[in-house]
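Input for the complex:
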Amino acid sequence: MAKLFERRLRRADSPLAIAGTTALALLAAMLLTSFLFISYGANPLQAYFALFHEPFATLRGFGYALVRASPLALIALGTIVSWRSGLAYLGFEGCFVIGAAVSSWLALLTAAGARLGPLPPALFLTLAIFFSFAAGGTWAGVVGMVRALLGGSEVLISLMANYVAIFILQFLVSGPLRAPGSLPETLELPRATWLPFILPGTRAHAGILIALLAAALVWVLLKKMPLGYELIVVGFNPLAARYAGINVAGRLILAAFFAGGLGALAGTVEVLGSQHRLMEGISGGVGFVGIIVALLARLDPLAAIPTAVLYGGMTVGADAMQRRAGIPSSITFILESLAVLLVLISDVLRYYRINPSALWNRPSATIAEGAPETASEGKDGGTGE
Amino acid sequence: MSGAKIATSAFLVTWLAASVRLAGPVLLAALGEVFSERGGVLNLGIEGTILLGSLAGFLVSLFTGMTWAAFLVAMTVGIIASVFLAWMYVTVKASQVVTGLVFNVLALGIARTVYRRALGDTALPQSIAMFHPLHIPHLSDLPFIGPVCFGQTILLYVTLALVVIANFVLFRTHFGLALRACGENPAAAHSAGISVDRIRYVGVMISGATAGMAGGYVVLAQVGLFREAITSGQGFIALAIVIFGRWNPLKAAGAALVFGACDALQLSLQLFGTRIPAQLLPALPYVVTILAISGLFGSKAVPPAALMSPYSKN
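Predicted:
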């Protein structure tokens, strides 16, 4: 007699099973959040419509969505490079701060009358990208080096390093780079150093183009280059990688370098494209949210951009919703984090298969491990808190 | 006594008293985290748990005026949050790092939503009933050590008592031994008849309880307000203290004092307007922690061998 839900010996790993359980998890997250909307007296369908209308149906809102998405996408790409190489790097808050600080410093040096004097915008941008990538890469590369050569946990080290970077930022904006005035922040960066706005009538800036370029490069690296292949092998099985003659330590350090560089670019893009000055608290948790974006994109570089735009857009839509309907924008934090948690939980469902035949109470002819095409798509059971 | 000497002594007293005060809540959170990590679970979710605990403590104190009830509710909220976290870590076997980080975002969303729900859109900062510093006759009036050691609230003494209890439980009881076994070699613990899952649940729940209490501590004994910025980062500081204290409750107390001292010194130096880059001081203990994990400073801080690895029986 077959049971309706039968435990599989191995997890179903077909694309259909993954897509099915992920979709189920996202639906469950939206369903749970619907109850919150209802508690505010709002129709959930209208609330979701409002959440997506502003960022994706108005030009202005879309511009803001791109502004929010650019740093998120870059951090997500950094996460993808390092996590796929088996390096659980969490130091993107720090890299973001380092990148923002380096490019602000450079920008202030090019102000009229400052040490460097005005540079052509193209030259400045090239220099800013180069130096912030190098600085962020070095910052993270040290963590990679400690992990690869000394064996310290990169999770703990990179979390601690975030604070060191944040204190350095506090020092810079209240000491050497501080503008005259009461607030700990720098002068506004010279206009020539701002990233150009790309959509007339919006705040969207060229940062999203940098993110797109970076996504393409990361995709080429991981999918088309021997180096990327080696990184992924190191991520899957460092021992096997070593037997295959791959320099595991070197690859880990390189992965950390790329990740840190991309994280620093996020800071550069934010400060040159949107904030236009360096100040305390500039990162605002974006280093962790970027990691969540990468996870929702299932560590796929091409999926990272649309996921970041979706995430950025929801933030914009939530602010609009709060202004119009008085529903707190913090609900999107709940929606977004529930989505990730439920996707994690939904992996449990892939250990089960459904036997519809059990519904008719017929003896089943299927053999336990013989029919992998019946991808499991369990219903409920996975919706915890 | 000369004027300079009085100023120095006043500076020292304020500095040390502030160090002890700042060390209290993070030490409390670190104590629980020691249990979770000794059992093999890195509970990054304490950051969010502290936030939820501080909100719960704030609301209960605001509406009832009972400080102890508020503190206990904060603890209970911490335990409830950690049951969910433990389920994710132990039963679902999801990545501990991812679960913890995402939970922190969830907690932030919940805290903001609940706060607005409870107090409305234009909530002015409300102050609440708080624990007052104890005045112990004679002891509190002692010069120097009086204000430093005996001018604190009862919660500090609760924390110190828990340090001793934690050390005893971890190193002198069956439960402590089982917990450490689960963190070092869960397979061996399992063959010795220990239920790894159950022990790890308890470990995570202890860390949730102390994180919730730490949140309540900050709000009920130090600030009297709810602001998410007040507790932000405290969970990660606790994490650093656990490493710095090498997963040992007594050493964690010392580590917490070092972190508190650096933080307090920075504040005092800023007040005195010296030319020392005071903002860099609080970074120092983090740098030392990094050096300790990587083995570049003192003997290497080695985490429990099975930290961050889920255990399944087959």
